[in-house]
Automatic annotation (TrEMBL):
Record carries keyword Glycoprotein: yes
Lineage per the UniProt record: Eukaryota, Viridiplantae, Streptophyta, Embryophyta, Tracheophyta
Residues covered by region (Disordered): 357-395
Domain of life assignment: Eukaryota
Residue ranges occupied by any X8 domain in the UniProt entry: 399-483
KW Iron (keyword) present: no
The protein, known as: glucan endo-1,3-beta-D-glucosidase
Family affiliation: Belongs to the glycosyl hydrolase 17 family.
Alphabetically ordered keywords of this record: Cell membrane, Disulfide bond, Glycoprotein, Glycosidase, GPI-anchor, Hydrolase, Lipoprotein, Membrane, Plant defense, Signal
Catalytic activity: Hydrolysis of (1->3)-beta-D-glucosidic linkages in (1->3)-beta-D-glucans
């Protein structure tokens, strides 16, 4: 009887979870076709249906692909390529003809829900940026002519390189030269048409380039101490959230925080060259699997916790004709023979058997932010000295924060923060003052770290400083300097 009761409770609990997950975000895939061994479009449509994938984004308007998706119920995003922006910008007749041939001819049997006008236009070497806004307006007017403007939205995928600042997230801003000619008119257009900004975000690139300071756990949504952002009072537990919130912050700075956001590309390669740090089967499965779980459970981001994001994974297949590093040919979720590269969920139902992690959305900030890092130790945990801090123990319950013997750049960053935004009392370490000697970076950083730590009430996490600090329970010894124990 007890076993039956427990089983019934478990079923009810899981049913409740499924109901709550129904309010989550949505997962789609990018269907690239730069490969010589890919299956036919009709086989691909069957694959998408069999996996429960109900959104797909393509990079053109190939008739075979659009016909194969007819009647499937799969929502489709098509693309007006960069090379057609000039014509669409200069000739409204071209825009009307393009919509007639590539949208009207297939809709509504093929459920085209949006059009990506160009792709990462700002980094296009052919310099098509100047044509983007007028092309979007002409394409939209063509939709109006065919009475499709209320059901098909327009946007343009933006790479994170369009940001002038992306770290910390609260300082997110767009490149100044793009604001007046492009972003403001585009945001006005998106607002007027009820559309959204498309963003391509790849934490892999940030991790690959900065693996010495960015934790792998932080990049893959695994457990980690988090990275605090003193600018917005939030703590970030994964790099994806931090990147997306940097875009939200940049939009907010221009007073367009009412416009939604869709992640039009994100992914992680399952293989790479020797110098492509982090490209592996295990990491790709962890990133995509944990991201899908996060999106389907409606977690949002720290800055917008209620935002149910739509995210398009890159990509459906490994594409063997792509040029560049090996990773470019190994982003696929499936091999060309339609077998999974690794096993991850695509639907709420699939989550029952998925043992991925789900990092928290946010928590209050209690420690300074000095660089985009998560975790001080090799496993991403906060590292302290071997003597545990015992509140009320060791005779007095006192503790101090001191600097580790790490590279000078990290110590200098921590020292600058503590004595600057952190508000530490750094007067005693100025030349001629009581704690100037010994005149070493580690000694000065230790004093500043401790001043901040005590100012914060010795709060958990206040002695972190990008993993360059740890807590001790014996008074620090740096010459004749006495470290404060409270304010």
């Amino acid at each position: 009887m007890a076993t039956l009761l427990i089983s019934s409770i478990s079923i009810l609990l899981f049913a409740a979870i499924l109901i709550s997950l129904a309010d989550g975000g949505s997962i789609g895939v990018n269907y690239g076709r730069i490969g010589g061994d890919l299956p036919s479009a009709f086989k691909v449509a069957k694959l998408l249906k069999s996996q429960g994938i109900n959104r797909v984004k393509v990079y053109d308007t190939d008739p075979a692909v659009l016909r194969s998706l007819s009647g499937t119920g799969i929502k489709v995003t098509v693309n007006l390529p960069n090379e057609l922006l000039y014509a669409a910008s200069k000739k409204p007749s071209f825009a009307r003809g393009w919509i007639r041939r590539n949208v009207v001819a297939y809709y509504p049997h093929t459920q085209i829900e949006s059009i990506a006008v160009g792709n990462e236009v700002f980094v296009d070497p052919k310099n098509t940026t100047a044509f983007l806004i007028s092309a979007m307006k002409n394409i939209h007017q063509a939709l109006v002519n065919y009475k499709l403007d209320s059901v098909i939205k327009l946007s343009s995928p933006v790479a994170l390189s369009a940001l002038q600042n992306s770290y910390p997230s609260s300082a997110g801003s767009f490149r100044p030269e793009l604001i007046e000619p492009v972003f403001k008119p585009m945001f006005e257009f998106l607002r007027e048409t009820g559309s959204y900004l498309m963003v391509n975000a790849y934490p892999f690139f940030a991790y690959e380039s900065n693996s010495d300071v960015i934790s792998l756990d932080y990049s893959l949504f695994r457990q980690n101490p988090g990275v605090p952002d003193a600018g917005n009072g939030l703590r970030y537990f994964n790099l994806f959230d931090a990147q997306i919130d940097a875009v939200f912050a940049a939009m907010s700075a221009l007073k367009y925080d009412d416009i939604p956001l869709v992640v039009s590309e994100t992914g992680w390669p399952s293989k790479g060259d020797d110098n492509e740090i982090g490209a592996s089967l295990e990491n790709a499965a962890a990133y995509n699997g944990n991201l899908i779980k996060r999106i389907l459970t409606g977690a949002g981001t720290p800055l917008r916790p209620k935002a149910n994001l739509t995210v398009f994974l890159f990509a459906l297949f490994n594409e063997n004709k792509k040029t560049g590093p090996s990773s470019e040919r190994n982003y696929g979720l499936f091999y060309p023979n339609m077998q999974k590269v690794y096993n991850i969920p695509f639907t709420v139902e699939d989550l029952k058997n998925f043992r991925g992690e789900s990092s928290p959305v946010t928590s209050p900030v209690v420690s300074p932010v000095t660089s985009p890092v998560a975790g001080g130790g090799e496993d991403g945990r906060v590292v302290r000295d071997s003597t545990p801090v015992k509140r009320g123990g060791n005779g007095s319950g006192q503790s101090w924060c001191v600097a580790k013997d790490v590279e000078k750049g990290k110590l200098q960053s921590g020292l600058d923060y503590a004595c600057g935004k952190g508000g530490a009392d750094c007067r005693p370490i100025q030349p001629g003052s009581t704690c100037y000697d010994p005149n070493t970076l580690q000694a000065h950083a230790s004093f500043a770290y401790n001043s901040y730590y005590q100012k914060m009430g010795r709060a958990e996490g206040a002695c972190y400083f990008d993993g360059s600090a740890y807590v001790v329970t014996e008074p620090p010894q740096f010459g004749k300097c006495e470290f404060p124990t409270g304010y």
